[in-house]
Amino acid sequence: MKIKHIDHIGIAVKSIEEGGKFFIDKLGLKLEKIETVEDQKVKTGFFPITDSELELLESIAPDGPVAKYIDSRGEGVQHIAFRVENIDEALKELKEKGVRLIDQEPRIGAGGARIAFIHPKETHGVLVELCEK
Ligand code: ZN
Question: How far is the centre of ligand 1, averaged over its atoms, from the C-alpha of 98 (Å)?
Answer without folding.
Answer: 23
